[in-house]
Design a protein that fits this description.
This protein has 13 helices and 31 strands. The strands form five sheets. The chain has an 18-stranded antiparallel beta sheet that branches. A five-stranded mixed beta sheet has the order 8-9-7-11-10, with helices on one face. Helix content is 17%, strand content 39%. The chain is an alpha+beta fold and 766 residues long. Strand 19 and strand 20 (533-544) form a beta hairpin. InterPro entries: Bac_surfAg_D15, D15-like. This is BamA/TamA family outer membrane protein. Residues 363-733 form the Bacterial surface antigen (D15) domain. Keywords: Cell outer membrane, Membrane, Signal, Transmembrane.
Length: 766
């Protein structure tokens, strides 16, 4: 009852505040509350098109009404409450920076707004459209609304589209692009599509040497006198087009300036050093001329191609040492159409030192922070090699009754070296816009789990990153080595292993040695904002010690465990897949889904995946209604001897992982987005293990999928997305009830208090 009273009090306060914004108006003044568009003849537009047109036409109405959140004109309220004659002070600052003066109904220009809307409809094929605007004062309202009644009339469609028919170079090139035209017979007339078609033709012509051609040199003539509401469209080159626009230009000389500054006013061609097909002007010898052989994609004698030129600019930046690239073309021989190309590269500071502090919070009640210091050299050996050396230290402390006291401390170092080229006898197909890289990374991390154990972790990898196309990314590590050993284990932890007989506890501190190749492929077109449906796919395959195990005939089950330098090596094959699908539902709203499937197959010298390679589930980017890494494996439920005594539970891990997520993301207002979600998944061991009943993968795996539902808010702060999620478990295979959680009732405070999991995170979960 108290909560209801509190809610009513807040609601009444908001209502009063919303209404109070009109009491400062002068007599006869009315507040403008917005525009509404109504369609009087719905037979000429589909329901979906009419909805889109309503939003588009309403956005053209001026002025824009006062900003509101949940009906509260908060900026107008601030303006009224802080109004002052002073030019300084807090009130003046709030009034001018956060306040918003009233938008009055008297400022509405119905005729102008109706005209703008009419032009938009005509640009979208409705040549016979009519719009009538009026103002309406709704009953009980203190404001005025503008209402525009629309009669679109029939839409006009293309009967035929005709491209230039002359045989000169330019007309022939434009006609050759017609197969990829955005204009299709039968489509509705649309001015926006016509403008984009001019840009498309210009882009294609730039790939065929027409350096001076521009979209403005094209004219689209429309004949709308055709019967049955049809039009004929003729694509033509304007007669006023300059002669140079019809010439096909070729490349003569190419010059690269690796150390350009604004003080350089001359081209210094007398100091040019020729390297293969381009010239380098670098009197200080800051980089070797060979650095640019993968960046300069144009060649002397080539026909000018803007696409290759643009790719060259991207590659110059991707080389690493350069922060800015300026380009010039010089028309050197107008009579024979040749260009000289100049690339002016500004070097970024070669060495830098950066520090970063990161705060974090996890659903497992850990609060932590990490401090990083990174040294970077962007041109280590004067060939664009990027060397980085990162030192870090972190601490994570756990609050609450769950695992209370077992804090985690880490520190380490991560050296890495990247070459802007492939150091390989095998040539990989790469997209011209991107520079491939050879990457060497190493790291050492010391982990101290307070009162339990300490671990030393070493890793090193050598491999390649390259993009065969804009949406595809490949990573191949020829060798990926990881070694983890337990430096110190407390008696408390050893007692936990002995008392609980839980093999997972022992598995955490087992020495691990893995080495072998891995390959990952990513397809991602989610950055294409114009698509209704977008996809993300990541596939990764890795293996460890396959050849060594074959040579040594390693077989743990047969009593033939093998070691390297005194440590047993791990053998496994691991496959990981992740698919994301996004469907745009409307302006700012979308449906997001994800499916993850991972399988690890230990063999030979291993009966279970090493702990560092196992799968985990649960937490803010996984099943959000469960604590991080607290699910599974399978239907295994820790008995009292595990949960009692030491009060310590290990992070649950497995050899197999299946997870599915679905999330509805509506745009609410301003920078705030909402989320309704459901998650399902679990992890399993590949083979049954003693003292872990129900942990192995079997035919009943679907019944062992834990499920949660929840809601959340996202705050889009431009630089980052701040995310809050509230997750509720609704099915838990490993619970004492082995199924539906007892007493599921979202209205019950006792249920919410004991089951809700709050997640605070940065970025979307997927």
């Amino acid at each position: 009852m108290d909560k209801i009273k509190y809610f009513l009090f807040v609601a009444i306060t908001f209502f009063i505040a919303a209404c109070s914004t009109t009491k400062y108006l002068k007599s006869g003044q009315k507040l403008y509350t917005g525009a509404e568009v109504k369609f009087a003849d719905k037979k000429n537009t589909s329901k979906r098109e009419a909805s889109a047109l309503k939003a588009e036409l309403a956005a053209l109405s001026r002025p824009v009404p006062n900003t509101t959140i949940l009906g509260l004109r908060y900026k107008l309220w601030i303006y009224d409450k802080t109004k002052t004659q002073k030019r300084h002070g807090l009130k003046h600052y709030l009034n001018t920076h956060f306040g918003e003066p009233p938008v009055l109904a008297s400022s509405i220009d119905l005729v102008k707004n109706s005209s703008n809307m009419l032009h938009r409809l005509q640009n979208k094929s409705y040549f016979l459209a009519e719009i009538v605007g009026d103002t309406v004062s709704k009953k009980g309202s203190m404001g005025i609304e503008a209402v525009y009644t629309v009669r679109t009339g029939p839409a006009y469609h293309y009967r035929k589209i005709v491209f230039p028919q002359a045989n000169d170079d330019l007309d022939t090139a434009i006609r050759g692009t017609s197969k990829r035209s955005l204009l299709k017979v039968g489509d509705k007339y649309n001015l926006d599509v016509i403008l984009n078609e001019r840009i498309r033709i210009d882009a294609r012509s730039k790939e065929e040497g027409f350096f001076y051609f521009a979209p403005e040199d094209l004219i689209m003539k429309v004949d709308s006198t055709i019967a049955d509401h049809q039009v004929d469209l003729f694509v033509k080159v304007k007669t006023s087009t300059p002669e140079e626009a019809s010439w096909i230009y070729k490349i003569r000389n190419i010059y690269v300036y690796p150390n350009y500054t604004l003080r350089d006013t001359s081209h210094k061609l007398d100091s040019a050093l020729n390297y293969h097909w381009y010239n380098v002007i670098d009197t200080k010898h800051t980089v070797p001329p060979s650095l640019f052989k993968n960046a300069v994609l144009l060649h002397p004698g080539d026909i000018y191609n803007r696409r290759l030129h643009t790719y060259s600019l991207k590659r110059f930046v991707n080389l690493g040492p350069f922060s800015y690239v300026k380009n010039e073309f010089e028309d050197v021989t107008p009579d024979s159409a040749f260009l000289d190309v100049y690339y002016f590269l500004t070097q970024s500071p070669r060495k830098s030192l950066a520090a970063q502090i990161t705060a974090r919070q996890t659903s497992a009640n850990y609060e932590g922070a990490q401090f990083d210091v990174t040294f970077t050299n962007k041109n280590t050996f004067k060939g664009g090699e990027r060397f980085s050396l990162k030192f870090f230290v972190s601490t994570d402390k756990q609050f609450g009754s769950y695992h209370n006291g077992y804090d985690v401390y880490q520190f380490g170092v991560k050296p890495a070296l990247s070459w802007p080229r492939l150091i390989s006898p095998v040539a990989f197909k790469t997209d011209p816009a991107y520079i491939p890289h050879t990457v060497l990374t190493t790291s050492y991390t010391y982990v101290d789990r307070s009162k339990l154990y300490t671990l030393n972790s070493f890793s090193a990898s050598f491999g390649y990153d390259w993009k065969p196309a804009a949406h595809r990314q490949n990573t191949l590590n020829l060798i990926d080595l990881n070694y983890v050993n337990s430096a110190q284990v407390s008696q408390l932890y050893l007692d936990s292993i002995h008392d609980t007989q839980n093999p997972t506890l022992k598995h955490v501190i087992n020495n691990q040695l893995t080495f072998g190749p891995n390959y990952s492929f990513v397809y991602d077109n989610t950055t294409d904002g114009y698509r209704t449906n977008t996809f993300y796919y990541m596939g990764r395959a890795s293996e460890s010690a396959g050849i060594l195990g074959l040579i040594t005939r390693a077989d743990t089950l047969a009593g033939k465990a093998r070691s390297v330098f005194g440590s047993n090596f791990n053998q496994y094959i691991k496959l990981e897949n992740e698919i994301r699908f996004f469907h745009r539902l409307g302006q700012g709203s979308k449906l997001a889904t994800r499916l993850l499937v991972g399988v690890g197959l230990p063999y030979g010298n291993s009966t279970i995946l090493p702990y560092s390679q196992q799968f985990f589930i649960g937490g803010p980017n996984s099943l959000r209604g469960f604590q991080a890494r607290s699910i599974g494996p399978g239907a295994y439920y820790p008995p009292a001897r595990v949960t009692g005594g030491s009060q310590f539970l290990p992070d649950e891990s497995g050899d197999i992982k299946i997870e599915a997520n679905i999330e509805y993301r509506p745009h609410l207002f301003s920078i705030v987005e909402g989320a309704l979600f459901a998650d399902a998944g679990n992890i399993w061991n590949l083979k049954p293990q003693y003292l872990l009943p129900g942990a192995a993968f079997g035919k009943n795996f679907l019944k062992q999928m834990d499920v949660d539902v929840g809601f959340g808010l996202r705050f889009n702060l431009s630089l980052l997305i701040l995310r809050t999620d509230f997750g509720f478990p609704v099915w838990e295979a490993s619970s004492a009830a082995h199924g539906i959680i007892d007493g599921v009732d979202f209205r019950e405070a006792r249920y919410r208090g004991s089951n809700v999991v709050f997640n605070l995170a940065i970025g979307y979960p997927f």
